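Pilot study result, target chain (107 residues):
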Amino acid sequence: MIVALARHPLVRSLRRFAALAVGSVFFLLVAAQFARVIGTDIRLVSDLHQTRATIAHYERRDARLRRRIARLRTARGAIPEIHERLRMLAPNEHMVLVEPAPSPAVH
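Predicted structure:
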């Protein structure tokens, strides 16, 4: 009786449908995981590009600051900086302040 029931076309169709449903669910789960991994990879590539750009910015800044430090270590570079920032003068030196011309009044 059980063997005859197992051979019934309706039972065979239900087993095939169940196998197809399980296979479809498995395929969808694998596809969803694959899509998530691809999305993560794309985000990480973007983050990597941004990090490299930030590193390049800080390397340029570091080079600029090192040049400035090297310039300020010499008297030839430090004296004008002292004059400009601190407005200090050595004896017998005079400072000339240049101010922009006033803009003409608009009527």
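One observation from the pilot: The chain has one domain: 2-86. A full batch analysis is planned for the follow-on phase.
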